[in-house]
Amino acid sequence: MARRPLAAALVLAAGALVLTGCIPEPPAIPASPVQPADPDAGAPAGEANAALGETVTVDDNAGDTWSFAVTGIEENPPMEAGSPESGTRFIAFLVDGERVEGGVDFSSLFEMSVIGSDGERYAWEDTLHATAENDIFFAMDDAFTGARALIQLPEGVDPELVVLRSAYGYPAVDDVVVDVR
């Protein structure tokens, strides 16, 4: 019976120490990792900051760095699967890339889109139902050339700007905007 009052006294004493701050609280639960930016958040720059074929290096400030160049635009790229919706067509912008640091693949690290001649933004994510030959989705290696980022554009709309946004670095990391006219 003497053990119960002793145990109760120890519990009360420990509670008092916690309340007075003598026993520190456990560390706070760390915040969740940075989530990718919303691809529709914030308008891309209206002016190009990179030229077609120019190699740029992007550090997302989260441990991944890629050097890459948008090397061209391809009308009606060769396809492995899928077809454009009625009244639209596929184009692809071609990318050469090389991982400098980190482990995240290119298509996971960058939100890719095209600004059309109608001023609208068309996202690569909207074409995940289709696969081009040498599709950028499968560019998992540390380096690749001629990977195709497939974009669906309405008939009569031409690509004007390619926008690559750092999914983990935006808005602190500027978009790469390439004039492809």
How would you summarize the topology of this molecule?
Blueprint: H1 3-20, E1 50-51, E2 56-59, E3 65-75, E4 79-81, E5 88-101, H2 106-109, E6 110-116, E7 121-123, E8 131-132, E9 143-154, E10 159-166, E11 176-179
Parallel strand pairs: 1-11
Antiparallel strand pairs: 2-3, 3-5, 4-8, 5-9, 6-7, 6-10, 10-11
Describe this entry's structure for a reader.
- It comes from Agrococcus pavilionensis RW1.
- Keywords: Signal.
- This is DUF4352 domain-containing protein.
- Residues 1-20 form the signal peptide.
- The protein is built from 2 helices and 11 strands.
- With 181 residues, the chain is mainly beta.
- Strands 1-11-10-6-7 form a 5-stranded mixed β-sheet. The chain has a 4-stranded antiparallel β-sheet with strand order 2-3-5-9, with no helix packed on it. Strands 4-8 form a two-stranded antiparallel sheet.
Distance between the termini: 88 Å
Please tell me the CATH architecture by its name. Answer: Sandwich
Secondary structure tally: strands = 11
- Structural domain tally: 1
Secondary-structure element sequence? HEEEEEHEEEEEE
- The strand order across the widest sheet is 1-11-10-6-7
CATH topology: Immunoglobulin-like
Name of the top-level CATH class: Mainly Beta
- The averaged pLDDT comes out at 85
Note the main sheet.
Answer: 5 strands, mixed
Number of helices: 2
Bulk shape: globular
- Work out the strand percent: 35-45%
Proportion in helices: 10-25%
Low-confidence stretches: 25-45
Secondary structural class: mainly beta
Over all CA atoms, what is the radius of gyration?
25 Å
Organism: Agrococcus pavilionensis RW1
Signal peptide: 1-20
Keywords: Signal
Protein name: DUF4352 domain-containing protein
